Structures are given as C-alpha cells and as structure tokens.
Amino acid sequence: MARVGLVVNPGAGRDIRRLTGGASVVDNRAKERVAACVLDGVTVLSEPPMVSIMPDRAGIAAAAAENAPDTVTVEILDLPVEGSAEDTRRAVAHFRESADVVVVLGGDGTTRDAAVESGPMPVLAVSTGTNNVVPTPVDGTVAGAAAAVVAAGRVDTDAVTTRHGTVEARAETPTGEATVTGLASVEVSARSFVGTRALIDPADLVGGVVSRAHPTEIGLSGATGCLDPFGPEAAGGAALRLRDPATASRTVRTAVAPGVTATVGIESHDRLAAGETARFDVADGVVGADGEREQELVDATVDITPRENGPQLIDVRDALDRAARAGVLVRD
Amino acid sequence: MSDYTLDSAEGRVEALRRMLTIRSFDETAGERFADGEIPGFVHLYVGEEAVGVGTCAALNDDDYIASTHRGHGHCIAKGLNPKYMMAELYGKADGYCNGKGGSMHIADVDAGMLGANGIVGAGPPMATGAALSIDYQGRDQVAVGFLGDGAVAQGQVHEAVNLASTWNLPAIFVIENNRYGEGTPVEQQHNVDNLSDTAAAHGIPGVTVDGMDVTAVAEAVEEARKRARAGDGPTMIEAETYRYRGHYEGDEQVYRDEDEVERWREQDPIASFKERLIDRGELTEAVFEEMQAEAQATIENALAYAKEADDPHPSEAYEDMFGDSVPEIERFAQQATARTDGGDH
Lengths: 332, 345
Description:
The complex is a heterodimer.
Chain A: E1 3-8, H1 17-20, H2 28-41, E2 50-53, H3 60-66, E3 74-76, H4 85-98, E4 101-106, H5 108-118, E5 122-127, H6 140-151, H7 157-160, E6 161-163, E7 166-173, E8 176-182, E9 185-189, E10 205-210, H8 220-227, E11 237-243, E12 250-257, E13 260-272, E14 278-289, E15 292-307, E16 312-314, H9 316-325
Parallel strand pairs in A: 1-2, 1-4, 2-3, 4-5, 5-16
Antiparallel strand pairs in A: 6-16, 7-8, 7-15, 9-10, 9-14, 10-11, 11-13, 12-13, 14-15
Helix pairs in contact in A: 2-3, 2-6, 4-5, 6-9
Chain B: H1 9-34, H2 49-57, E1 64-66, H3 72-78, H4 82-89, H5 123-137, E2 143-148, H6 155-166, E3 171-177, E4 180-181, E5 184-185, E6 206-210, H7 214-229, E7 235-240, H8 258-265, H9 269-279, H10 285-308, H11 327-340
Parallel strand pairs in B: 1-2, 2-3, 3-7, 6-7
Antiparallel strand pairs in B: 4-5
C-alpha cells in the first residue's frame, strides 16, 4: 500500500514576528484541523494511501488520527519526542525509508528541517508557519489529494516535482568554523545575537544569497525578486548586498517580513551560478536562514553559495492537473 | 534605561554578573535552608536566571515588576541588595520587609519591585494595577507581571490580562514556563502546547521565546515595552526555561529523572552566555572566574550580615499593617512589648 508521511510542527508559526510584524498566529488547534484536512484529502482515491504521522506532545497527531476517515489507515510513528527540530528530522529520515511522499505542515524553517533528511522522496510543503517562501499556501484537503495521487504513483512524479535549491554558508572565525543552510535564502544581519531568531528590523539586514527570487516572496528573496525574478527551479542564485537607503542609488520597497514593508537600499545585485560563492565579511553579526537568525559571528568571513541539492517539491496544481487529465479522479 | 542593557559589552557583562549573583544567592539559600537556619519555605530560581535578568535588562529603572513565590532572581535582576534580601530570609529587622515577609514576600517599591508573592498568579493583577496607575498618571513606564506555567490556569491571571488588554494598559506578562507546576508536567495542566497561545483569547500578541537565552528574553521584552509605550497595550511572553532544583527545597522530585535535568543543564543560561561573550572578545575565562568569586563573596557577606543582624522586636509584628492607628492593635503591641520586657503578663 502506498504511504504518505505527515509532519506537523507544533512549534511553527509563533515567533516574535507576531509582535513586531503582522504575522498570523497558527495555533495547534488550527494545525490539527489542517492535518485532519490532509487525512480527508487522501480519500480522493478509492484506495487511499496509508498515512503515518510524526508524534508530538501537543496532541496534534493523536487528534488527527482519532478523527481520520474510516477508509484511511493511520499510524503514529513510535519515535521519541524532544519538542525540537530534531523531531522533524528524525521523522522525515524514517519516512525516507518507509513512505512514498511526505507532507510537511510548517513554514520555511520546518521545510528546511525536513529537507535535510528527505533525499529523493517528494515533499509537499503546506504553509502553516511564518515565512512561507517555500511552502504552498494551499488547503490541507487539496494537499492531501495531491499527496495521494503522487504517493500512489497515479501521476509521473518527475513531471510534478521540481528540485529546489539550497543556499549554504560557511563561516570562518578566529575561533572556528560554522555552517548554516537555507532553502530560499541565507541572510547576513548586523544584529549581534540570535535572540528571538526572527529577522525583525530591516535596518539590520546587510545582504545575503537567495536560491529563488520573486516579489511575491517575503524577505531577501522578495527584495531580490524586485530586481530580477527567477524561480526555485532555476540554476544558481543571486547575491544581494544592501546599504542605507538614504545613500543608495537604487532602492526597492518590499515585504521584508509579514506586515513589514520597508525601503531597502541596494549596494549590489549579482546572479550566481550554482556553486559560485559570494563572500561577506562580518565584524559583529548573525548569519540566518530563511528569515531566522541562526549563527552569531564575530570577525568572520562568510562564503555563501547556491547549491542544487534541495528537496524534491511537489507542485500541487500540476499533480492534480495531471491526475484529472489522466482520469484518475473520475470513477465510472 | 536600566543600569544594564544588552546593547553594550559592559551591559552584557553586568547581565552575566547578575545571573551569577542570583545563582550564588539561591545556592547559598538552599544550603542554609537545609541546615535549618532559614525559616519558612524557599523556592529557588537556579536555572531560570536568564528570564529575570533578560526581562529587567530591557526595562527602565523606574519600571515596575511584580514577582512570584520564586522571586529572589527577580529581585537581584531589578537591582535589590542581596544583603537586605538575605536578612529578610533570616527574618531580621534589616530585611526588606523588616523580617516579616521572608523568602516569598520580598518587596522594594522604591526599586520598582512591587513584591514577591505566595499566592500563585498574584503577579499579573499587581502589574495590571501598576499599569493602570501609570496610564492614569501619564507616566513613561511599564509594569511587568511574572507568573509561572501553573499560574496560567488561575482565574485572577485572566482577569488581570483581560482588564489590561481591554483598557490598553502598559503591562507585560512574562510566563516562566519551567515545565512543572509544583510536580505536575505542563502538558497535564493545559490544553494548549504553547502557553502564549492564551494571549489570543484576550486579543493581544503572545510569543514564546527561549528562556535559557538572556538575549532572546531581553529582545522580546524590549519589543513588548516599545509596544506598551506606543499605546498598543499589553503583550504576553512565554519564556521556556527550567528549574534545576525542586519546586521547593526538600521536594523529592519523583516526577522527573536526573537525565532530564542534565539535558536542560546543557543549555545552562550562564554557561552559554559566558561562552558567547568569550567568543565576542568581551570576556576571558580568568575574568569570569573572578566574577564568580566576587558573586560568591557578595553572597557570603550578605549571609554574614543576615546572621549578625538584629531580630525585629516582637512589637513590630503589629507595625506596617494599617495606615491609621487602630486602638486594638496598639493594645496588642503594648502587651507584646510588656511581655518581652519582662513586665506583667
């Protein structure tokens, strides 16, 4: 039987951008309902795939399993729960060996954690987080249907998935080395500490590298997209260096965080080939990934490189479009 | 501003010093309590230092805090003198409350510390009251109410948050989620995974931050303070933290195992901040050891002072209770004096 893995991150969608910006709170009851929708959506097939769910302390998996349609076999994985990103990585590593598709409910951070372990397994990322450049804002029921047709092999997986890029930062400091990996972007911030993680003040942003760019996106990829949009499937990426908008010859006005539209001064903008590196000197700052501060650095040199090694992401629209055209959704 | 902020190297070192002082104070208080020297109960803050210090680093000197039963850390973070705190624990006349309060009732209104409190969840109503006075008098201040995870289920907490939200008062509610309400795990007390979700019921923002990281707590409180002073009302902040000691000294802690405590110790707020300051070139191991020794000396001096300090006169038990003189109380006080002086019974 085909199998869909389901990851619901209880920690997604609740950082300080609810205080400093306009991000919505996605509480765990809301995630529970999205998970229930995914379980309902897989019944688009008369023989729905089995669904395995990552365990959690918030009761999301248990509630979703209890309320699942009778025709769907559901199991909750017997894995330890730490209440951290390690839970997502551990569950996805398990799914890579046991499932055909993984559905991830979270934001860019959760999808990034999933991507660390997903390998060639297709990933369907549904937006229930804060920064949602990579995950799709789609109803859970529709996501469940798309996951089902891909998991059951009813559409050509290669035709409905694309390989997302990543951005890798390697920092060298007087005391050692550090690595940070982002899916859509790696940012350099002048703020000294990781603190509450979210990049909250546009004035702190020094620049970075993106794997995709479009004005519909939030954060550095949105700013870059105002200058030269390119899709996640495009090879390589772009480096953006920022400066005080008051002295910049070019500026863009863009969403740097949910509810925070700001004027950003452009120092330089360069397209990068896959594997090509942009170097940033960081006297005192933080390197972040996908809008979240990750690594504090002092007197560091940071080499940031776009790579072609991200998750295999399912395009929900493509998957169901192809399923419909192949008659998969029609029962005579 | 506070006399220390995390915006400067000096401020960061001072924040570390306060965390060290809190730890020395509470470890010493635990030892002295075990030896039977300190009356009543003590609830220790060891492991939770980053929450109190991060919060107070983001406040101005004249901002208010209202504490919990686990309040020693809040006091030191707000700048109270460990000498008079220890004297209070020992029930001495020189204590902050003249020895009448003990560990759970240290207050110094002049320093903006409105009081620790033995009533679970009493901090938020006090903070809402203080915020109302700030609003009424048009002052440039905020009031912080600390509460524990267990207190989130208290009715008075929601009454306080509701009023502060409805009246748009400059209050900040800081939940110290140390995973256990006495011996009950937080998951068995609440139907929400993140206690900051309860903010939504009152129409205010709620955020959850790493309470083992002093920079995360300070940043959240700084943003909440800006919001409050901009007239946008209260904020709820949940700081995820852990107490290394029992709920109270003497707690057998059958509800958790040593492995769990060790896992949290790996994120120790003092050790991790120390390492970060060393990496930044703002501290050396040698200076840290000196700071540790100084903190210990400060507490040893406080202990010596407390032990030597005078006991309050029994008649003082009747003082500081009523604004105006009450004849019956006066009579009791005179009788207490007479008894102590060997007079007629």
